[in-house]
Amino acid sequence: MKTKGRVTLPIEKGIEQEIIKLLDRWGADAVRNSDGTELIAGIKDSHMKVYSSYFPTRSDQEWARAHEEQVQQVSLMTKRITAVNKPLTINIMNGFFEEQFKVNYNNDPKKWWEVIDRTTGKVLHSSKWEYDSDNDRVIINQPILFHTYTVSFFAFQVWDSTQMYNHITNNWTKPHEIPYDVRHDETKEHVLEYLEKWLKENKDVDVVRFTTFFYHFTLIFNEMAKEKFVDWFGYSSSVSPEALKAFEEEKGYKISQEDIVDEGYYNTPFRIPKQVFRDYIDFQQKFVSELAHECVALTHKYGKEAMMFLGDNWIGTEPYGKYFESIGLDAVVGSVGNGTTLRMIADIPNVEYTEGRFLPYFFPDTFYEGNDVMKETNEIWLAARRALLRNPVDRMGYGGYLSLALKFPEFVSRIEAICDEFREIHNNMDNKKPYVAPFKVAILNAWGNLRKWQTNQVAHALWYKKIYSYVGVIECLSGMAVDVEFISFDDIIEKDISDDIGVIINAGDAGTSWSGGEYWAQEELLVKLRKWVYDGGGFIGIGEPTAYQRQGCYFQLSDVLGVDKETGYTLSYTNYDELTDGHFILQDNNTFDCGEGIKWIRSASENTEILTMDEGDINLAVNTYGKGRSVYMSGLPYSDENVDLLHRSIYWVTGNGDIEYKWTTDNIHTECACYKEAGKYIVINNSDKIQKTIVYKERVNDSIEIELNPMESKWFNI
């Protein structure tokens, strides 16, 4: 019997009959417009719940063009320019797209800009440079020859980043949309007045889908209109002279352009956050949440639900931040491209429901003749399904141009099956929690819970060669039968490690916020972790964990890990590293894919057992440390094999090998989730091939063997 509900369908004008058929096939109970599409007149008569996208800071373009001085700004830094003669002239817009930005000369550049000698790190006094506003140039009359210089400056954002992306992707010819800044009291009041007017006029709308609120993540295009810099966590597009003045009033000290542009790194989350940037994040989150609350209150006043899209203009609304609850949202919807992004949305607290906008997006960069849309669709669903079984989003949907998707009948049929399976998962779970291990797994980094399910990422669900080995760790965990916490180094230093944590994972490149950098020079952190492992805790290090060259070692917990990295200082020592066969962790795997891996890892303890090596470089090793254990991996991309390897590693370091067989399967391409309170369990096939598997229930000798079709899931009564 076909089920209905929990699905939101994107609609557009001109395909009304096709929409009616698809509403039935996909079992949708809600419809929505997308950026670039409009709702259909009379859609309310279909008894569907109606979502409408709303853009608080670009809905009224007449206002934007009439108040150019109140347009949003961004803090930018020029390329590094070497002085080979005098004077030195710097074209400050070189490398930036002039249709996206316009240099701000309204606020005195001599007061707000910074020219920095990057060879010394010193800021030049404003008397040492001049600016040419007609040609967007800065002139340094007496530079020190062969020193490099940069200019940090403010620019107006004269084209909204998302609208620009959509414009380029979809070949739009509509006018450019300009975002305005609610830091200006006049604009702030207008935003609330315009929203109230819109709420009165749009009586058919049930859910206002704020996309999002006020400030876009950092998305900078180059002179060829191609992406130059993307940071989904970036705050540099929320900066302006008005913001910096307000910061000083609230926090009691000045913040500079350099605190934002951060030597050109723009405070990417890979940087260990300085206190001033933490303060700026706190400052913006408080401001954004207070005004967002007013928008939500207005929405509720007119009997509508308030939903936030976790993307685009989401800066300041971070759902794991301390001010999020005060916004009062009914729901959050976000883009789902894998298990990690699904958990990032599903785990959000203090909302009535969550919704996943599954990829692929119905845009022409994906839906074109010759592209394998099915491959991407199935990969995303299989990864997301694992996470759904741990903590599901309440609803699912899609976005973009439905007319494009309709040109791919096989895709339409596949989504019909996925929607049915999504509802089946919810119906059988019956809002009950799945069985998990009797201990928690903690991810340790500089950000802690603020970046829950967001670690080691540049832009969520996008693949980067430098990071996929680390993101794989989080992806593996997203669908694993363990409760996962995200803790910071400060949490350990200021408090103790919670008694319910059985395993701590530190994964990332040296010097990044994820690995820890200079945190590993702090005595209290080292002592607390060593004692915790020695007393029976489990520690897993991946990549360059605890890395900080100091006091004769590179991995500061090399004694715990049993390995260290050769950096050239100990080449005079001879290593006699040999493999150990038959270890529990590799019981199901003959090989280990460490991704990019880390070279020059060597043993550092007599207890170290080396499980895999590549030309003398250790890729996988284990160590005992007092009553505790550790595992070192040089990398861990997401794969069925690595899910199994991490799972076995977690149980090995906690000394709970027997529990490994509780509600698990013996085939690494399959997994099991059990809902004891609901009296059901599910077995899933994560591959595109037929799989046979043994399902272990409460113990090893309590099992059944089943066969699953490609990508199939099967439910059973306990």
From TrEMBL:
Pfam families referenced in this protein's UniProt entry, alphabetically: Lact_bio_phlase, LBP_C, LBP_M
Start and end residues of each Lacto-N-biose phosphorylase central domain: 440-656
InterPro entries with a match to the protein in the record: Class_I_gatase-like, Glyco_hydro_b, Ig-like_fold, Lact_bio_phlase-like_N, Lacto-N-biose_phosphorylase, LBP_C, LBP_M
Domain Lacto-N-biose phosphorylase C-terminal span(s) in chain numbering: 663-716
Annotated TM spans: none
Entry superkingdom: Bacteria
Lacto-N-biose phosphorylase-like N-terminal TIM barrel domain segment(s): 5-436
Coiled coil: none
GO molecular function, one term: 1,4-alpha-oligoglucan phosphorylase activity
Record-given protein name: 1,3-beta-galactosyl-N-acetylhexosamine phosphorylase
Species name: Vallitalea longa
